[in-house]
Amino acid sequence: MTSLPPQPLSPLDGRYRAAVEALGEYLSEAGLNRARVHVEVEWLIAQTDRGFFGSSPLSAEQKAQLRSVVTEFGQVDIDELASLEATTRHDVKAVEYYVRRRLELLGLDDIAELTHFACTSEDINNLSYAITVRDAVERVWLPKYRGVIDALSALSVELRDAAMLSRTHGQPATPTTMGKELAVFAYRLERIARQVEATEYLGKFSGATGTFSAHVVAAPDVAWPDVSREFVESLGLTWNPLTTQIESHDWQAELYAKVSHANRVLHNLATDIWTYISLGYFRQIPAAGATGSSTMPHKVNPIRFENAEANLELSSAVLDSLAATLVTSRLQRDLTDSSAQRNIGVGFGHSLLALDNIERGLGEIDLDRSLLLADLDVNWEVLGEAIQTVIRAEVVAGRSTIADPYALLKELTRGKRVGAAELAAFVEGLEIGEDAKRRLLELTPATYTGLASELVDRL
Hints:
mainly alpha; Fumarase C, Chain B, domain 1; Ribonucleotide Reductase Protein R1, domain 1; 3 domains; two-stranded parallel sheet; 6 strands; N6-(1,2-dicarboxyethyl)AMP AMP-lyase (fumarate-forming) activity; lyase; Adenylosuccinate lyase; EC 4.3.2.2
């Protein structure tokens, strides 16, 4: 048997690449290296702007040329860095040598020793991860996540008046509307979206053990904490003044916990939609030419939501592991975070793939309103709650002397199917006011939805 040509090991880089490739711009080795180059370049510019060690500020043209190293970073640069790392066996040192080569090409050899000046690798890495994770979340994951919220919200409004039997504990219960039930998920997801949007992306830039020790020896008169804060903030990050060699990764743990929470709410949505499909409430719109089953030609399987479930579980497994692992580092530094963080893209990739499936799945379903109404019409016993509640109000108002209204309705309805005629006869015989009796006689399971439709406006 001949060997296969090199193949992607992860389905995210194979079968599902098209759905997640936008994340590769940031949460890939190449994306991380570009961010590392970005940090090194900006640190060079920041130092020369301050005239450190007799250096002169770079001209606008020189700054533009240096920054173009980042903006034009491509496959040739990726390959060059791989070649350098094969020699250095150190990814950040390879980046330093790469930047030094660019300084030489630009005729800026005189500031070469300011490259990576007073930096430990983690000074570059933590800022690079913060930049890439921030950009991946804000430019890729959040827009897709909000696309699902928007689709849900639109469906909620469209179906706000579609009366539906509730099924608390899987049993017939007080009716609701499909729109209101979908709005519950949209509201939950929106809360988490705001929390993710409020994420602080922290960064440190303080040397080998977070003490500015080498900095102070090289330049005792420089206010290094101020320089560090200004540099970190210039990258659009929040400065962390108290760290070991590493930034403590608490912001990452907080973010991944929020995304994992979002995954679980989305998982709940996927399982509910799947269940509504299985009940026949939602019909799936078949895609032209698609096959649902290899043997049963009639089937249209809810694969979008099943695929989403699996990928949400995988995403949360990775993100939960990262959140638990990254907050611990032995003493002033160990290297467990280095390998762990290389899987950030995996966690977000599975979540993004699930979001894509849910968004597409929501666009491929159609509500069978007639089935919802038929389901309601054979479950008149759900009005037992309304009747006993009205009797209680009438007793308090002095218009009834019925003892224990709940027990009365329990005897009539618990575990039984009660039809419209039986309930009407029961209500007619009740000792309650005429206005209350009229309201109950006019009530049907399809109209017993309270404020469900109005609640959709809370979105």
